[in-house]
Amino acid sequence: MIDAVPGEDPQDIAVVGGGMAGMLAALLLARDGHRITVFERDDTDLPETADEAFDGWNRGGAPHARQSHALLARLHRILAQRAPDVLDALAEQGATELTVERLLPPEIEDREPRPGDDDLVLLCCRRLTLEWVLRRVVTAEPGVTWRGGVGVAGLLGDGTDVRGLRLDDGTEVAADLVVVGGGRDTPVLDWIADLGGDVQVTEEQSEAGIIYLSRFYRLREGRELPLLTKQGAGGDLGYLGFAGFYGDNGTFSITFGVPTGDRALLALRDADAWEAAIRSLVPLAEWTDEGLADPITEVEAMARLRNRIRRFVVDGHPVATGLVVIGDAAVTTNPWYGKGCSQAGIAAEALSSILHEHGRDRHAIAVAMDAAMVTEVKPHYVASCMQDADRTRLHTAFHDGTEPDPAAAAAREFVMEGLIPATRVDADVFRAFFRSFNMLDRPDVLFADPRVLHAATTALATKGDRPPPPRLGPDRDELLAIMAAATEARPATSRPSPTTTGHSPTNV
Description:
The chain is about 35% helix and about 20% strand. The relative contact order is 0.14. With about 500 residues, it is α+β, with helices and mostly antiparallel strands. The N terminus and C terminus are likely disordered. The strands form 6 sheets. Strands 11, 12, 13, 14, 15 and 16 form a 6-stranded antiparallel β-sheet that branches. The protein has a 5-stranded parallel β-sheet with strand order 5-2-1-9-20. The two termini are about 45 Å apart. Helix 2 crosses helix 6 and helix 9 runs antiparallel to helix 10. The chain has 3 domains: about 260 residues, FAD/NAD(P)-binding domain (3-Layer(bba) Sandwich), CATH 3.50.50; about 130 residues, D-Amino Acid Oxidase, Chain A, domain 2 (2-Layer Sandwich), CATH 3.30.9; about 60 residues, no CATH class.
């Protein structure tokens, strides 16, 4: 844990955005001794309980608030080191910890613990429960002032040296440092452009290639969360991905990743089609057991998903000093991989360390934050882009009835027929894969590990010696027929109009 900033030099820091990135930065920096003011545009009171938050908390700035969620091991480790009280509060809310012991495939006979296993903990809970717990901790933290219902209109600067904020009502707020931790639509690029600097932000982005569909359930009295089965809690049908997610307070969720080009599969937004579809998937058999649970949401959709990274230092020159941008305003990745909250935590932890080292050296802060993001976050962004590009090429070929891209097909075969089977029988390969997926190691560490490469290559070469993998579910035509039968079976008077399904057409 970093020692507190010397008492004679705490900084006044304005944090824009009260979502995950803003709250994590506010909490860590306040505990370093800085004075923090959080400006959050949403004007909503904090609900009394986590369940009330899930049922009615309006988090307009977080479109994925009611989508499936898991807190990767990287963020769990940051919280364990810097804010263990947050983990304690999540445990009180029934969050589910998944340790190596619980996640090791049953085929692995070597169950002995290894050094580093304490870091390999994934925490499952609803996104709104995490935000609710963190909001309670942050707003109670000495040194944090929370200003809800206050929008930010721009930056105050001496040229490109940022000195504060201009609020929507015209009020000007001075600050030693401005941290923008808003969501993916925060207009921070416009704010920077308004400063008139010669150097502007660089940006690259690519389509994630999926639409995210989720539905939440609550266990009935006396029932327990389904065990992670031998098949796992999800899978890839080739034309559709799916997964079950543990929640908190007796809840869980099921999610589909629908290729953006497959409009027919968007019929999964219909609740009857959804329920029929999830009951056709073998790994979800325990999750759909009769009498286990009741749905507590409709099928929620999230679309327009992109991988995007922005650089705020170009050829060694910051676009602005006195400004740090973190969270989805800086880097976004496909939510299917669950990296967003950990990326925000990495940025908050890096900023805490950088301020401890560089104090008020505003140029050094900007350069060091860029270096930290390039080292710690960009490799995971690149991996997300590559995975999405390969999957999209394969889905396009499947849908069009054409030959798949050879490189994409080879990459998928290496992972599905080599790496994944190796993780099911080798305890060390499983740990290496788990560390990479959970952002504890860079992706290149996994594929540079000789033991991993040998095990994966051997598994791929001997795939013909393995029995055929169990069928996870129906093919696409069969699934569409199952969905159609479910919707046709209900009375005509109860069928929703195609334009009144409860989902805004703009979402998809």
